[in-house]
Specification:
41% of the residues lie in helices and 20% in strands. A five-stranded antiparallel sheet has the order 4-3-7-6-5. Strands 9-8-12-11-10 form a five-stranded antiparallel sheet, with helices on both faces. The chain contains 16 helices and twelve strands. With 400 residues, it is an alpha+beta fold. It is rod-shaped, with a radius of gyration of 45 Å. The chain has three domains: 123 residues, PAS domain (Beta-Lactamase), CATH 3.30.450.20; 123 residues, Beta-Lactamase (2-Layer Sandwich), CATH 3.30.450.20; 118 residues, Arc Repressor Mutant, subunit A.
């Protein structure tokens, strides 16, 4: 028999525990099993029905009672929790936030972790014999998941906006404040030398546009909240001169309830397009003058009209500077054309295709090709470009 063991009736017993050890064990048992339960306090119905977890704990941090919401959250029954230290619920690597409160992961019965927000206060409850720790636990796992998804979506949104060549702007519904402006828009409005890279630039605003165009956009604020709106706006320099034209497409962004939360605007540089449009307009005017010349070849010489009447007044300004021999040759060749061939020639000079000319004159494309070949032969032009050059001979842009 080892020292300190006592035999009684043939059985070995361990030494009797000290008085202090017994008292400590009794104190823990009393805390765990004789503390106030939720169903023993005046506010029991409130605790039982609370949508968040509630724990009553001893000053030393041992769980006295837990409401149904907490049991559901962690997967434990109350009898499994009673007597356990609060720290035993904390996920490894985390720490109990204590009285200051904060976010922490708690262990579940399945072995996983759930993010919660913990807040704590002292309470004096009947039957507690002193202070009791009241711990409120709110499940934040869904909020964290949504927050992470939102962060990912915002990051993708910023990457998209900062890598598109066209400008992008997010505004408040009244168009009074810029929420986000892409780096591409900053480059468009400020110029490459002034833009701060391709990142979001909140210093970009509507002040870079012409005052009249800003007024037109703001006047459309109410309609923009219901429909897509497109308009062209001028970007001006500090001196007020126009630097470029931008095509603006706006549309409302709504929340799940249908309320307009933001207005999105996409900006596209259409300066070159407008210049081409202006050049085409000038070309159409010039083509109209050319058609008049084809219809009246004698007027090209400035000597008379097809009826043999003498020309009254000087030659047209657009004929000045052209070579007389070439003008004479053109007039002589054009005079050989039949009325139908002249119509085909007019449309060729104006830029019409075979199909377009056929539709205009109600002819088949094959017939137009025949007339076109006759025109080219009589005018001695190897190509349409040469024909146009022959007709353009007297214009001030090319002959002077």
């Amino acid at each position: 028999m080892e020292r300190g063991e006592v035999r009684s009736n043939g059985r070995t017993r361990h030494p009797i525990a000290s008085r202090a050890t017994k008292d400590a064990r009794l104190s823990v048992a009393r805390e765990a099993f004789e503390g106030p339960r939720l169903d023993q306090i005046p506010l029991a119905p409130l605790y039982e029905a609370a949508p968040i977890g509630v724990i009553l704990a001893s000053p030393a941090g041992r769980i006295l009672s837990a409401n149904p919401a907490l049991q559901t959250l962690l997967g434990f029954r109350e009898r499994d929790l009673r007597g356990r230290p609060l720290l035993s619920l904390v996920h490894s690597g985390d720490s109990w936030p204590g009285a200051r409160g904060g976010d922490v992961r708690l262990l579940t019965r399945a072995g996983g972790g759930v993010w919660v927000h913990v807040s704590e206060a002292e309470a004096h409850l009947p039957g507690s014999g002193g202070r009791t720790r009241l711990v409120l636990i709110r499940d934040e796992s869904e909020e964290r998941r949504l927050s992470q998804e939102l962060d990912v979506a915002l990051n993708r949104f910023r990457q998209l906006c900062d890598n598109v060549h066209d400008g992008f702007m997010l505004l408040t519904p009244d168009l009074g404040q810029v929420v986000h402006a892409s780096g591409g828009l900053s480059s468009l409005l400020k110029g490459e030398e002034e833009a701060s890279g391709r990142e979001c630039d909140r210093t970009v605003g509507l002040e870079h546009f012409h005052e009249e165009d800003r007024a037109r956009l703001l006047a459309e604020a109410e309609r923009i909240q219901e429909h897509r709106v497109e308009l062209q706006m001028r970007v001006v320099r500090p001196d007020g001169s126009v630097r470029m034209w931008l095509q603006v497409r706006t549309f409302p962004l709504r929340d799940p309830l249908g309320e307009v939360r933001h207005v999105a605007a996409i900006f596209e540089d259409v300066t070159g397009r407008r210049q081409v449009a202006e050049m085409l307009a000038q070309a159409r005017q010039h083509a109209a003058r050319l058609v008049q010349t084809v219809q009246d070849p004698q007027a090209l010489l400035g000597t008379g009209d097809p009826r043999g009447h003498a020309a009254s007044g000087p030659s047209p300004l657009w004929l000045q500077g052209a070579h007389v021999e070439e003008r004479t040759a053109f007039a002589a060749r054009a005079a050989q054309l039949t009325p139908r061939e002249r119509e085909v020639m007019e449309l060729l000079v104006a830029g019409g295709t075979t199909k377009a000319i056929a539709a205009e004159l109600a002819l088949s494309p094959k017939t137009v090709e025949v007339y076109r070949a006759r025109v080219m032969k009589k005018m001695r032009a190897p190509s349409v470009a040469a024909l146009v050059r022959l007709v353009l001979l007297g214009s001030p842009e090319n002959g002077s």
